[in-house]
Amino acid sequence: MKAIVIGGGIGGACAAIALKRFGIETAVYEAVKEIKPVGAAISIWPNGVKCLNYLGMKEALRELGGNMRFMAYKDYQQGQTMTRFSMEPLIQSVGEQPYPVARAELQSMLLDTYGRDKVQFGKRVTHVEESDDSVTAWFDDGTSATGDLLIAADGTHSIIRQHVLGYATERRYAGYVNWNGLVEIDESIAPADQWTTFVGEGKRVSLMPVSGNRFYFFFDVPLPKGLPQDRTTVRDDLQGYFAGWAEPVQKLISQINPETTNRVEIHDIEPFMQLVKGRIALLGDSGHSTTPDIGQGGCAAMEDAIVLANMLQTNSLGIEDALLRYQEKRACRVKDLVLKARKRCDVTHGKEMAVTEQWYEDLKSETGERILSGMCETILGGPLE
Ligand code: FAD
């Protein structure tokens, strides 16, 4: 059996590693010459961590992961702590800890694990064709690749999605802009072992530790879509949006490097239940594009990879049957994650300001129990409980 994997991001790389471990021949085709992930870092929650452990990256991931032992919310004006609690009960409940990691390092770990030399870069798929017993991907350089099945891990802008669904999907603007990057840890801004989030006015400023004495930071601001993006004004823009916010936020803005700060308009796609067609499977963002509000998009791609590989490995009724079983196992799970993230997004970003204000009030009486039990439920819904 030979699988053609389109896209060498988190989903494609994990799928390729998983299939390879089961002895299935794989070939990965990636559009760009060099993968430059959108976004500086990513939080891998225990459901994702378990997938990477399962794929043999347990030790490598620990080297990259930040030490996130506590979680805290802070009031935007005074910087007062609204709630602070240990992550330990979550870790004890689910059996693994979360690891925030720099994206470039995660991507390197995945490609090194699979074998970087086995990825064909600069191969952009333009269309796919299926026959009764094979599937062919055509690339923009006029070449093609044929296999027994094709895994479309070509991201949120997937061109293979339309072939699978039979219609075009629209990306939905979630109503806010996210700036993110990495900065050296400064404990006068936030503790080094804590996920700290300042909240107010439907905005947030968040810091998470990653390895190498760095914070992954992000700023979220509800804004119209399509405003000009200009690196030279990033600091001024943030100073404007966060005028009157507490001293640590001002300090963070002064310490970021505008050259390496990313600006992303956040989108998702209305969930759909069809993830496969014949010998083609959508995997990762091509099959479920979510806002990052519960940090599960990449983790879900890792879950997809494990489930798909397991279905192919354990099934003797053929590829199409295995892919349908993959769809059966994944469609509700990923729909649930997209909708959960959308709900969280709306509360966090002031879609209805009264609801957001109530959330701020609730945070003041939060012991950690409610937040961690919500996270637990999400995490335990994964395939490797
Ligand atoms: P991608 O990472 O987009 O990879 C797709 C790959 O396919 C790319 O390398 C691309 O070049 C290639 N490609 C595209 N088109 C073609 C083509 N035609 N032919 C060949 N190759 C092609 N998730 C989490 O789990 N935790 C988080 O904390 C988190 N934070 C996030 C923060 C932000 C601001 C954003 C935007 C997302 C966040 N996510 C997070 C989501 C996560 O980044 C995505 O879910 C994840 O990257 C999806 O992986 P993927 O492989 O499906 O897609």
Automatic annotation (TrEMBL):
Gene3D superfamilies: FAD/NAD(P)-binding domain (3.50.50.60). It is an enzyme of class 1 (oxidoreductase). The keyword NAD applies. Its cofactor is FAD. InterPro entries: FAD-bd, FAD-dep_Monooxygenase_BioMet, FAD/NAD-bd_sf, HpxO. Pathway: Purine metabolism; urate degradation. Transmembrane segments: none annotated. The keyword Oxidoreductase applies. It catalyses: urate + NADH + O2 + H(+) = 5-hydroxyisourate + NAD(+) + H2O. Its EC number is 1.14.13.113. Residues 2-338 form the FAD-binding domain. SUPFAM superfamilies: FAD/NAD(P)-binding domain. NCBIfam families: urate_HpxO. Belongs to the FAD-dependent urate hydroxylase family. This is FAD-dependent urate hydroxylase. It comes from Rahnella perminowiae.
